[in-house]
Design goal:
Layout: H1 4-16, E1 30-35, H2 48-59, E2 67-69, E3 74-81, E4 84-91, H3 98-108, E5 116-122, E6 130-134, H4 142-151, E7 157-162, H5 172-177, H6 182-207
Parallel strand pairs: 1-4, 1-5, 5-7
Antiparallel strand pairs: 2-3, 3-4, 6-7
Length: 222
């Protein structure tokens, strides 16, 4: 069953669509890229998805164009990538409720779950490792779980940024919510660069496909 917040989002959208002025659909393809994290807590491991979005915005030349959108409780920036349009999104809700912002933005911009990229931290990968997961379960990540619930789909591609898992289970929460150490911060510039390269390469490749029909190879079981 979808959470009440997600149901309220769907109801709100159905009532508001008649009065909202939506962005026109570009001639090329459009993608939503959402960086998951906790607003107000930059520099923490759990908010590394937001750091990647910041780096991505700088790479695309839109770092000075972030604007708050109250309709989806998020900061938005729109960029061009060759013939495609990228909608960058930083939810202003806490991680566990970030799916409400992502789902609302997806509907406002007329996007399906397959056209939504999630960028988030990954405990089970060491710092410095980046991987693109194509659909599947949340694997214990509450922000991804919220997005799956509110979008009612497991199909979103996820860019997983390794933050490493501590040796003792009772220190996981402190590790995730803590700031990167001085040694880890030295690795961050290269990590953000690699994550951005991987994301843009994948979006370019998908944008060149003749249609947005489902690619079953992308949505294998986890």
């Amino acid at each position: 069953m979808r959470p009440d917040g997600c149901r309220r989002t769907t109801l709100w959208l159905s009532r508001a669509m008649s009065v909202l002025t939506l962005e026109p659909r570009p001639a090329g393809k459009r993608w939503l890229v959402a960086g998951l994290g906790n607003p107000g807590l930059p520099g923490t491991r759990h908010s590394v998805g937001l750091a990647v979005l910041g780096h991505l915005a700088r790479r695309l030349g839109v770092a000075d164009t972030w604007a708050r959108d109250r309709r989806c409780a998020a900061d938005l920036a729109v960029a061009s990538l060759e013939d495609a349009q990228l909608v960058l999104l930083r939810p202003r809700r806490l991680m566990n409720a970030s799916g409400r912002s992502v789902a609302r933005a997806a509907e406002l911009f007329g996007l399906t779950a397959e056209e939504v990229y999630l960028v988030h931290d990954e405990l089970d990968k060491p710092l410095g490792k980046v991987a693109l997961k194509l659909g599947g379960s949340a694997r214990g990540h509450n922000g991804v779980r919220s997005c799956i619930s509110c979008l009612n789909s497991h199909a979103m591609p996820r860019l997983r940024i390794g933050i490493g898992r501590p040796a003792h289970p009772d220190t996981v929460q402190a590790h995730v919510l803590g700031s990167f150490s001085a040694a880890e911060q030295e690795l961050l510039p290269l990590l953000l660069e690699r994550a951005t390269d991987m994301l843009l390469d994948h979006i370019r490749e998908r944008s060149q496909r003749p249609s947005l029909g489902p690619d079953l190879s992308e949505f294998l079981p986890p």
